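new request in #modeling-help
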Amino acid sequence: MKPRKVKKLDPQAPLAENAVRILKTRSAEFVELAATATESGSSDDLHDARIAAKRLRYVLEVTGFCFGKEANAARKQARDVQDLLGEIHDCDVLLPRVLEHIEQLREGDARSVSQSLAPDGAPAIDDVHWKDLNKAPARRAYAGLEKLALLLAARRRLLLERFVDSWGAPQRQAFVERLDGFLGSPR
Amino acid sequence: MAKATPIGGLSASDSFAAAAHKILAVRSGELLQQRDRVLDTGDIEGVHDMRVASRRLRAVLEIFEPCFDKKAHRAALRDVKRLADDLGRRRDPDVQIALLESFASEASIADREGIESLIESLRAEQAEANDLLREALNRVDDHGLQSTLAELTQDSRP
């Protein structure tokens, strides 16, 4: 996701004056993307909100001193939401990886079991039976992986609820007001 | 996560261009000083810290764009993005392995087998990503990201 262009930056004007423009753009970008992400809960929207929080945080790290304590508090909020969204992202990345691994093991086991029942040149057999599954090399791996997938899905739900609770419309409004408060009076 | 280095001598009344010079010098240094730690897969914080440093540097390059020569800025941003991608490719399996190891420590012995088979598969990806990262770090030296950033820092002087 490309960052929004900040308009009317002036290399010769003071840092604080330019910082106001940058922070207004970056905070508006984050707040809008956070609103979309709380509504959809989709991994793409959450990812975009996380990137926007990160950009806002890094700008606050270098320009926050122009605005005092409230800017530091806003930076911490951006860091915390970035961390929370990062944990959701970890689930979003790992869950498909777990399911893909299960699929790969199943493919490999199906090949092993069928080859053990009908090696080259042997007469064809009528069917695969439950006892034949004991020949599957990864047979003991599935239960743990299925539980892991369940754990990740449940964890994601919990983390998403936490995000929606902490970045709903009232909290976003309070965040905007905090930024408006200090951006109106740079030191 | 590594804390951002404070920018010494920075003032709210500095011109935007002068601030760009000071901030870029510090953020570039943060990135380059991490390079010796990152290839050790036994210490995953090295890659993490360098990746965060690359993100911080990228954010700074993005906001101070008007203070730099366009061509040099574009080249620096492109190289930092590439390095960040290579760091990210190593970081992904690092994070996943650490997470899986913590889950495995809570799981029953019977359930661990599957988790450990996935960890093994991720270790292979981690080793592959580490080889690519080694090449990327060599490119940083060969193509001189360090000198590109130094030139850019000079260029942003008011």
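bot summary: Chain B has a mean pLDDT of 90.
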